[in-house]
Amino acid sequence: MKRPRILGLGALAAVAAVALLAAACGGGDSGSSTPAAGSGGGGGKVFKIGLVTDIGGLDDKSFNHLAFVGIQRAKSQLGIDFKVLESHQESEYVPNLQTLAAQHYDLVIAVGFLMDGAIKQVAKAFPDVNFAIIDDAPSPALPNVQGLLFKEQESGYLAGYLGALESKSGTISTVGGQKIPPVDHYIAGFQAGAEAANPQVKTLNDYSNSFTDTAKCKQLALNQISQGSDVVFQVAGGCGLGALSAAKEKNVWGIGVDADQAYLGDYILTSAIKKVDVAVFDTIKQIVDGTFKGGIVTTFDATKGATGLGAINSAVPQSDIQKLDDQASQLKSGAITPPDTVS
């Protein structure tokens, strides 16, 4: 396999996120920083933004990391002050959110669907604090909470389409984390894209029920490879890095998720990305501009450049790139609407 190259399917922003990986990996419970006085919006006010990770932590090289990238960008460009609290177990979600809310942060962002119950509890207890949650739309809607959703099935579709084109065995697979909507959106799209490229393709799927246990994800991927899979798509955050290591070990293609994971090696075919960093930055900008609204859901998709693929390996033939570009254009126009439910 040759070294990957960057193509125009939403890769450039994702690669920029990867460039900040070293900063995220060193994060502790506090990621606070202080901008220059008067650098924020609102006539000199410096806004305070809080971020609470899920159990994957900042070092997941995935969506928690991208959220951190977004808040760092907001510090640089909007002059905000921020604090990041990492959650190491689900029981820490509520106290972490409460800590930031009690300190009167202007916005508290929860990273991940698994914090649905926690944010409902804390948002009701602190009605004067603004909250946002990634990958969730709390129901019933809360007047001080904005949901930030993505059409992951669009990125999954393109990844599955490319995976089926490049598969030699005709069998490709997915390793999911927990069976929750954001994970299943990716998998459903992946399977639909694969079938669009090759109606005879065989797709395998397993769930690790973890976003942190790399050994478990690796074993699931090894099992799939033993059944003939030569393309493995990880949809399990930090746990999924184990699935990718199995792909590397067995000399088959790996596909990354959320962030562009091409930096892991030449065995990465591509990555199905969603620009969590953009969602975080845009929501913080609403706070600074005074336009933030709770009780609504903002959806990020191909029309907003928020889904797509990262770097595509240079071993992929140009003829397949052209087919992929056509699929991407149809997604953006709405001519293709991938499913978001795993059958």
What is the class of the largest domain in the CATH system?
Answer: Alpha Beta
Largest sheet: 6 strands, parallel
Radius of gyration: 19 Å
CATH architecture of the largest domain: 3-Layer(aba) Sandwich
SSE order = EHHHEHEHEHEEHEHEHEHEEHEEEH
The CATH topology of the largest domain turns out to be: Rossmann fold
Q: List the uncertain runs.
A: 1-42
Q: Give the overall form.
A: globular
Number of H- or I-type helical stretches: 12
Task: Report the average pLDDT across residues.
Answer: 89
- Please report the distance between the alpha carbons of the first and last residues: 33 Å
Instruction: Supply the helix-strand structural class.
Output: alpha/beta
Largest sheet, spatial ordering of strands = 3-2-4-5-6-12
Count of extended strands = 14
Describe this structure in words.
The chain is an alpha/beta fold and 343 residues long. It folds into 2 domains: 11-150 and 276-300, Rossmann fold (3-Layer(aba) Sandwich), CATH 3.40.50; 152-258 and 308-333, Rossmann fold (3-Layer(aba) Sandwich). The chain is built from 12 helices and 14 strands. It has helices at 11-18, 21-25, 41-44, 63-78, 93-102, 116-125, 152-166, 181-197, 214-226, 237-249, 276-289, 318-333, and strands spanning 4-5, 48-52, 81-85, 107-111, 130-134, 145-150, 171-176, 202-207, 231-235, 253-258, 268-274, 297-300, 307-309, 312-313. It has a 6-stranded parallel beta sheet, sandwiched between helices. Strands 8-7-9-10-11-13 form a 6-stranded mixed beta sheet, sandwiched between helices. Strand 9 (231-235), helix 10 and strand 10 (253-258) form a beta-alpha-beta unit. The longest helix has 17 residues, at 181-197. The relative contact order is 0.18.
